[in-house]
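Notebook p. 47: complex prediction with 2'-O-acetyl adenosine-5-diphosphoribose.
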Amino acid sequence: MYRQIVVLTGAGISAESGLRTFRDQDGLWEEHLIEDVATPEGYARDPQLVERFYNERWRQLHNGDVEPNLAHVALAKLEQEFEGELLIVTQNIDDLHERAGSRRLLHMHGELSKGRCPRSRQTFLLRDPLGEHHTCTCCIPAQRLRPHVVWFGEMPIGLDRVQHALDTCDLFIAIGTSGSVYPAAGFVDTANHHGAQTVEVNIVPPDNDSQFQYHLQGKASSLVPYLVDRILNDEVISDQYDTEMTA
Ligand code: OAD
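Predicted complex, structure tokens below:
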């Protein structure tokens, strides 16, 4: 039924895998100042502090306790079984979508698993937490790698590709994102503008809630598998979901 789907994911999809979100109670931004750890100015002031912040997240991802949850797995199944086009755009820097098997994936805010040359922008896979010993092989003299993370004030990655996908999609789904950080929070407007159906999945209404046609309130790990099965069974999306899921 649908031909082209764009899925936007945020920190909420990884919450049930044990990764902290940013803005919920106990979120990362309660403990850290955005200006200190998520801006180019903060990095210029204190690169060690910024590295420590991202290295903590890197270690957590690699300590063996963190796994994709049923929502990540369901999206990977959608990619395998859906006959149309699918693009998952994630704001997350973790690699849980990949670990679940997703490949048609764009990390618009970067990836924890990589460091980036500040001069050429070439990325390098990190086998251990980022530090002084990580330098690029593309420049002379070699440059010290910075986190491959998009900070506030920097341009997200792959926006042309996202724009094209949004212009042509007939279904847009946003999962576990607060709808407060642009440009991602505005993707639903573009999808609406092009006549797509728009669905959000969240435990509470996101800031851009009113822009969505359908609202699925609850945990991603139970709602996303349900939504994916409906899509794969060619069933029309409707507000009935809410009733069915809460019945
Ligand atoms: P936020 O922390 O702002 O929002 C997480 C959202 O997930 C909230 O709306 C929660 O209600 C929802 N949520 C939490 N647990 C959930 C669950 N189990 N199932 C469904 N929803 C759940 O995270 P993002 O919106 O991803 O950017 O944040 C966007 C960007 O702001 C991040 O990529 C990061 C941050 O600052 C940069 O660092 C550049």
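Notes: The longest strand covers residues 110-116. The CA atoms of residues 174 and 224 lie 10 Å apart.
Next step: compare against the earlier run before touching the bench.
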